[in-house]
Structures are given as structure tokens and as C-alpha cells.
Amino acid sequence: MSAEPQVIVIGAGPVGQSAALLLARWGVQVLVLDQRPGRGSGGSKSICQQRDVLDIWAAAGAGQVAEEGLAWTTARTYYRDRELLSWTFEREGPLPPCVNISQTRTEQILDAAIAAQPLVEVRWEHEVTDLTQDDSGVTVHCGQRRLRAPYVLVCAGARAQAIRAALGVTFTGETYDDQFLICDIKADLPGWENERRFYFDPVWNPGRQVLIHPCPGGTYRIDWQIAPDFIPSDADIARKIRQVIGDRPYELLWHSTYRFHARLASRMRVGRVLLAGDCAHLVAPFGARGLNSGVPDAENAAWKLAFVLNGWAGAGLLESYHVERHAAAVENLEVTGATMRFLVPRTVEERMRRRAVLEGGRVDEVDSGRFAEPFWYVGSPLTTPEPSRPFAGRPPKGAVCPPSPGVILPDLAVPGGRLRDITRDGFLVLLGDMCDSSLFVQVLGKVITAPLAVRGLAEIDGTGSLAERLGAGPDEAWLIRPDSHIAAILPHAGPESVAAAVGRALGGFPDI
């Protein structure tokens, strides 16, 4: 690395890799530290990657994840041998709603993108033992070695106890007693190639659950809930696989056991240090809300750190990282907590309710995991509310949330690519037909130093249909953040109201 790092990222897993690439995209010099001797291999680990995370990786130069992943379409849920319900994702734009791909392969793709990025250096065998900070930066202690940068982003995973302790951050929560056995197998399973299957109380795992996910290359992930004290032998594993797939040839690629955790850091920002991913929050994996929340952490942190480092916003913008992403983690814990109470009931009342729901076929109450969604910054201090555009609340499972302030911009196809392709280089103002683009450019250019573009909606697609698809009025201005979230929708908009909304979205609001 020819220059001193502006940000040190601790942890070279997918969240740390994503953060490094996104920071470099803003021209920030990044040093990534990891305590391991090098990149490990083996095991699919986190496999379900949601559409909006694929979008972030595409912006970071890792669009190959979406290209290689298996885009499953249907989720089926069974009770014993009876199908209770199925649902499909709502298709929003060019990217698939989600893909399955092993975390090992995702890390390889991100590593290749990092290798092509001169602003990022990765150093292995650097275990961080302490952090100290002052008014000008952070000193990272790696044994006897000392490294320094203006800011640090910690993506060191769940076992980052020493770092959290150094920052005075608690990590309270609980660990579930039941174990889960996961296996990666390669097999020919006709009809299962594009479906996620969830079984409550099947005859081959009575009283517990089994989850089956298709993956690329004819591979499958099978996940069994097992007893807390059960230690599966090779013969146990073979028997369990046979019970699921029958008398078919298969190859066992990897297996492991684990327990679920539900924990949340007390703070995700401490001075010049930000926490992201599993070191800040742990949730049960049903609904794939782990990595799919860690990567948005990385994106949120990256653009805010870059704006502060480049002098486009004050340091107060960094506190909004904690406000927004801590709220996202709280929601994920609430959603996954409800799922776990249904999957692993702990009280007589919870067990009776689950049995009544399953045996009565009350499909609206069956909870096998609400799939990951982007968090909507409706209550964020960066968002300008608009009474005529209220947040519609959580949409039906698999559906897309209608646009409103705080919600992520729909990823629609437009000539030459996707709508979000033009949102990643700064703030974007989208204007209806009745708005004078040249006037907005003239006024905003005098008061905003941060990167900002002004585009007419009709100009983008040349037909006027984009405004209709978004539901945008002819006199409205939509302000889009660098992470594609809608910061404001302003009816009867003028340049002054847009400038005020940009100022708010840059952290220019009181009491933060």
C-alpha cells in the first residue's frame, strides 16, 4: 500500500470484503486485517443472497455472484407429508429475487474483485487485540504491531469479544438449546432444483424440522433440527440423508452442527469505530437475515465514511449509521424471534398454538421464516417525511414494498441497464415532467458540495413510463441516497425544498 489507510477494516469475511470494495469505490484507501493465516475453504455456510444484496455486490464489482447463483423461485412448506402452502417471489427488475450460492464461492468472487482494486490491501495473520482512539484517529493494536487510520470498521464476526470489550460494547441476548445439523450433498433430485422445501414434523425427523435448499451444480443444503445432546455419527448422517432423498446416489461434500444465537451490540458506533455484521448482531438463520443484513451494514457505513472523509458531510452523519442499522438489527431480531418461537416452542402455550396452526392448516399463521428484506429507513433522521406518501408497512411475504420516503428505490429495468445503476455515485434527484431540470442544477450546485446528479424521469427511459411505474407525479422531486434509499418525495417541488432535504440526508438535522 503506497498511502496510509483512511479506513482499517477488521475482518476479511464477506461483510469486510464488501465494505473494502465499497469504500474503494468512493476513492478511499483501505487496509483489511484478518487474524486467520489465509482464506479458508469448505462448507456452504451462508447460502441465500437477497436481491438487494446482489445489487450492492454488482455495484462493488462482484456481479458474478448473481450470475453464478441458483435463482430458486418457489418456497414450499409441509406439515408431515402434507403441503401446507407455497409462495413465490415478486419479480421486481433484472436481478433475481434471490440466489443460492455457497459463501466459499462468494468470498472467492469478492477476493478477485479486491485483487483488482489498488486502493485495498489485505493482511492476514493480524489479530487485533485492542483499539484506542483520539480526536484524530484510531490506533489498532495487533500484538506488538501498531496500525493507524482516521476510522475503523469492525467486521470481525461473532467472536470479536476482545474488540467489543475494548470499545465498552455489550453483546446481550441468548443461545437456543437445540442443535442443527447441516449437510452439503451432490445428488440428482428431479423437481427440487428450483424450490426451497421446509418440513414441519416429517416422519423422518419427528417433532422437529428439516429445511432443503437447492444450490448450483446439482448440490443441496439439508438442515435438520436435532436434539441438544445428539452427536451425529457418520452412520447417523448417512441414514438421515437417505430418509430425505431415498435410494439415490449422492456425495456428501461437507457437514457441521451449530446452535442459533440472538444477540445485539449495545452500540454500532463508538466514536471513530463502527461495527458491522455478526460482530454487531446475530440472528437465527431462518429467513436468511444474517449476511443479508451485514452487507447493507457495510454499504451504509461505506458511503457515510467516504462522505465524511471527503469533506462532503460532517462527522455527525456517522451517528446515523448506528441509528439506522441498529434499528434494522432490532427488526431482524423481532422477525427471527417470532419465527423461532414457532419453530422451537419453549412453553406449553407456544407448543399448543403451533400444533393448532399446523393441524388446522391455518396457513396465514405458519412461520417458517420471513425472507430477508431491506430495512426501510422510514423513521431515520435522514429521511424527510411526506404525509401524502405514508409508509404502507411490511408487504406480504415475497412482495415488494411500495415506494415512500425511507424505502429502497425499486430496481427497475431502464434502457441500458437498471435504475439503481445511476444511484450509486452520490445523491440523485429524479424530476417529474413539470420540473425544470436546469433550474435545479443551477441552484443545487451552489449549495451542495457532495456528489449530486439531477435527472428527469422521462429522460432516463425516453418514454415517460418510468414515472408511471414508480407512481411519481409530474411536479414531484424524488431524492435518492447513495445506497438507493429514497430520502424524500417532494410534491410541488422547488430547488430550495430539495436542497433542504439533501441537507437533512447529509446529517444536517438537530439532536444527533
From TrEMBL:
Give yes or no: UniProt keyword Lipid metabolism: no
Q: Which superkingdom, per the lineage?
A: Bacteria
Q: Which keywords appear in this protein's UniProt record, sorted alphabetically?
A: FAD, Flavoprotein
Q: Which InterPro entries match?
A: FAD-bd, FAD/NAD-bd_sf, RIFMO-like
Ranges for the FAD-binding domain?
6-332
Database matches in Pfam families: FAD_binding_3
Needed cofactors: FAD
* Name of this protein: FAD-dependent oxidoreductase
- Species of the source: Nonomuraea salmonea
